[in-house]
Amino acid sequence: MSGAEPGPGASFHATALVYGESGVLIFGPSGSGKSALALALLALAKRSGVFAALVGDDRIYLRPSHGRLIVSGASSIQGLIERRTFGLLTVAHEPTAVVRLLAELSGADRAWQRMPESGFTASLMGIEVSRAALNSSESAADQALAIADCVERMTLSSCAGKRIPLEQCAAVHKNRKVAASPPPDGGQAVD
Question: Where are the domains of the chain?
Answer without folding.
Answer: 10-160, 163-191
